[in-house]
Hints:
The protein is mostly helical. It has two domains: 1-34; 35-112, no CATH class. Helices cover 76% and strands 0% of the residues. The protein has five helices and no strands. Mean pLDDT is 77; it is low at 1-5.
Amino acid sequence: MPHGLSTIHNDKARWMLYRMPWPLQELTWINRGRNYTDLFQRSVIAVSGGVSLLVPVIIMTFTTSRAARLIVVSVTVLLFSLFMAVGTPATNENLLTATAAYAAVMVVYVGTALPSSD
């Protein structure tokens, strides 16, 4: 294929890529050179992030004692910060920010939960 046609083809492909919705951009042939290990790591972090939010919320939903909810929050925040420190290459500032955000979400859930009987 002559050089000019290849450039035109690539430009049209890039234009079509930028017009696609974001999830479909990841599946195109332009990103085929992406490292599958990186994709797997990102998937594991995404799933574990969702699980780290959902499991404590489900536990706290079935717990009526405010003290038990606070214990659940304390343990999950400590585990979250430990897993972030060991399992990700995040800087200290990023670890502190992520842990503070996670703790804020958990504390808001405890604060807005139905009043307990204790």
